[in-house]
């Protein structure tokens, strides 16, 4: 009995043989990604059935990075990604950091006024 990856390999060979080399190459290169979910599920890992969180995160990054007048350093992008990851994945930590930041910001504003 041939497994899923074997079947995908045969499908890729068929496509390559009929002149669809790009399709065959894509199937070969992405075959392992197609079986990630079942592999993890068999090991008892819980895998979300949706990728909305990832799409939202990528949308947030794209919104900030694609602005024509902004130029990001590698360190700046890494910091932005870390902040967004904390915001979406560690909500309690993000809330405490946000409270701390706004309290410090309020102190700075008060010092500037007086």
Structure write-up:
- By secondary structure, this protein is an all-alpha fold.
- It has 2 domains: 39 residues, no CATH class; 62 residues, no CATH class.
- Helices cover 77% and strands 0% of the residues.
- The protein contains 6 helices and no strands.
- α1 packs antiparallel against α2, α4 packs antiparallel against α5 and α5 packs across α6.
- The radius of gyration is 23 Å and the shape is elongated.
- The N and C termini lie far apart (79 Å).
- The C terminus is likely disordered.
Order of helices and strands: HHHHHH
From the spread of the alpha carbons, the general shape counts as elongated
Number of domains: 2
What summary fits the major beta sheet?
none
Rg, rounded, reads: 23 Å
Q: What class do helices, strands and sheet pairing give?
A: mainly alpha
Q: Which spans have pLDDT < 50 for at least 5 consecutive residues?
A: 108-114
Q: What percent of the residues sit in helical stretches (DSSP H or I)? A: over 70%
Number of helices: 6
Give the overall pLDDT as a whole number.
79
What's the N-to-C terminus distance? Answer: 79 Å
Q: How many strands?
A: 0
Strand-residue fraction? under 5%
